[in-house]
């Protein structure tokens, strides 16, 4: 997998964060598969970095629960489990609900327009059956609502849990039925945000997380 990849040196403006971000994306997308050993040496060559920044980045990923570090055995990609999904998603749903309620109190008209524009882009990705593009914009929508809530503690907590679950969402097969449901749920999210209806937006976001949880658990149990 890595032998044929052209090395891509990382810009030095923020070596540590750029390396963490790239490794996170590889873990979320499944390029580094659950249950496998992280090929540190090959990744160092691919990214043009030494072992020291690589190991520092792996420590961050371990703290996020994406990998585990084993003495004398290196780094291993953690498995996504049913128990973890069932534990994390209810908490994430509650945080998303709170972010929706607070966003309705604080978001500007320009902020709503920005979310609407992202929503339209996401629908275009759906119509084109571009799943990678859809997921990327979906995350931007949820982040925009979270930031509009204007609560740093909420943002930090929600982003940490969301990162852990992004991998599960990405790896689980998105059925056509579930994809249609997700688009319909996002139509409601945009509607209630535009109306600044905090209670309804909160309930919709919590329900959106619950349907995601159920679909991921179904996939994990059948895999």
From TrEMBL:
Entry keyword Transcription regulation: yes
GO MF terms held by the record: DNA binding; DNA-binding transcription factor activity
Entries under SMART domains matching the protein: FCD (SM00895), HTH_GNTR (SM00345)
Domain of life: Bacteria
Residues in HTH gntR-type domain copies: 13-80
InterPro entries: GntR_C, TF_FadR/GntR_C, Tscrpt_reg_HTH_GntR, WH-like_DNA-bd_sf, WH_DNA-bd_sf
Entry annotated with the keyword DNA-binding: yes
Record keywords: DNA-binding, Transcription, Transcription regulation
A Pfam family matched in the record: FCD
Protein name (database record): GntR family transcriptional regulator
Organism field: Roseobacter ponti
